[in-house]
Design goal:
397 residues; alpha/beta; 4-stranded antiparallel beta sheet; 15 strands; 42% helix
């Protein structure tokens, strides 16, 4: 039996082997401290859960319009006006089964075979594979650590060809936690307007910015860039709703209509109960979000300061999200118990075997000199994990 060439071209994630091994070790009672989670370790706020229960009890359990209910679209539009200074109508909004689904819809409606999408890296592992699944060509553009893991407009300009269809901007970023300044975003916006290319702006971590920083959406600068921007967002990170699977897009009406049509054939509508819960999230108090962000900021500061005291590793202070990119290049060639570190994959495997600490190798993020730590876990786990890391580093030869 043959598998299509398109699906054969999609690379498996190297993190799956680590994840499977961690799960097996935990099932066998081994005390592994994990730092791979890409989700908040907080419960979904009570008023959101109550809205879901009410939806069930009210019988709101049937099909909705394929692109989401009018009520939820209005809540999303109101959110954009209130928080981002962006004016959208419900005709501009598509509700999907998570932000990942929103990204697939966006790429699906703008790409023709062979179209190129510029992706600044280190990047979330799924971006290049999503582009390939939609018959596009990912063009990886690496940002250096000394550049703050941010790709400049000038560097993006060097990668644009007559096949370039879009650029993906993720701010705050997974995996780096860094943000694009308003000044740099304005330059990127001007470039994309000049070249008439789309911006897919992944803003899923917009409320997890620290040190008093403020999120700026690239679509907010003027009508020209707004018309070329597809904003990707959702409730998974902001409201600790990863399992509820609600994402959304904001775009020009023609793109929104196309995405809605595709979705009507691919998945029908997003979960009806989760849509009601999302209404409550967007229209309700931000108090739980602010409390969660405050806790993340404390964990981030502790983790970064601690890592930067250890031998052979270092990291930048991330400005948002809940990840730290730890540089391990000075450990290459070092060994323990006959195992030698040659890159991020081997480091992650050896750290798991020898110290029972699980981190995510960043080779799939286009950065083999780094591993990703998530601080979406308790301070107790963070302290224990870093204690184990320190012991591990001191044993390397």
């Amino acid at each position: 039996m043959n598998i299509s060439k398109k699906f054969q071209s999609v690379a498996p994630s190297s993190t799956l082997a680590i994840t499977a091994k961690v799960n097996e070790m935990k099932a066998n009672g081994i005390n592994v401290v994990g730092f791979g989670a890409g989700e908040p370790d907080f419960n979904t706020p009570e008023h959101i859960r109550e809205a879901a229960i009410k939806a069930i009890n009210d019988g709101f359990t049937r099909y909705t319009p394929a692109s989401g209910t009018k009520e939820l679209k209005k809540a999303v539009a109101d959110k954009f006006q209130r928080e981002n200074g962006l004016s959208y109508g419900i005709e501009n909004i598509v509700i999907s089964n998570g932000a990942k689904h929103s990204l697939m819809n966006a790429l699906g409606v703008i790409l023709n075979p062979g179209d190129e999408v510029i992706i600044p890296t280190p990047c979330w592992v799924s971006y290049p594979e999503m582009v390939k699944l939609n018959d596009g060509v990912p063009v990886l553009l690496k940002a250096k650590e000394e550049e703050g893991f941010v790709v400049s407009a000038e560097k993006i300009a060097t990668a644009i060809t007559d096949k370039t269809r879009a650029v993906i901007i993720n701010t705050p970023s997974n995996p780096t936690g860094m943000i694009y300044s308003e000044e740099e975003l304005r330059k990127i916006a001007d470039l994309c307007v000049e070249k008439n290319i789309y911006v897919i702006s992944d803003e899923i971590y917009e409320h997890l910015i620290y040190d008093g920083g403020k999120h700026v959406s690239i679509a907010s600068f003027n009508d020209k860039i707004k018309d070329l921007t597809i904003i990707i967002n959702g409730v998974s990170k902001t409201f600790a709703m990863t399992g509820w699977r609600i994402g959304y897009t904001a775009s020009n009406a023609a793109l929104a209509k196309a995405m809605g049509s595709v979705q009507s054939h691919a998945t029908s509508n997003p979960n009806s109960i989760a849509q009601k819960a999302t209404e409550a999230a967007l229209n309700g108090s931000m108090g739980p979000v602010l409390a969660m962000r405050s806790e993340f900021e404390k964990r981030r500061t502790y983790m970064v300061n601690r890592i930067n005291t250890l031998n052979g590793v270092s990291c930048l202070m991330p400005q948002g999200a809940f990840y730290v990119m730890m540089n391990i290049k000075d450990l290459f060639g070092k060994s323990i118990n006959g195992k030698t570190i040659t890159g991020s994959n081997s480091f992650a495997e050896i750290l798991l075997d020898e110290a029972l600490v699980s981190v995510i190798p960043c080779s799939d993020f286009d950065s083999d000199e780094h591993v990703r730590w998530s601080y979406a876990t308790s301070m107790e786990n963070i302290t224990e994990g870093l204690n184990r890391l320190e012991e591990f580093l001191n044993k390397l030869q």
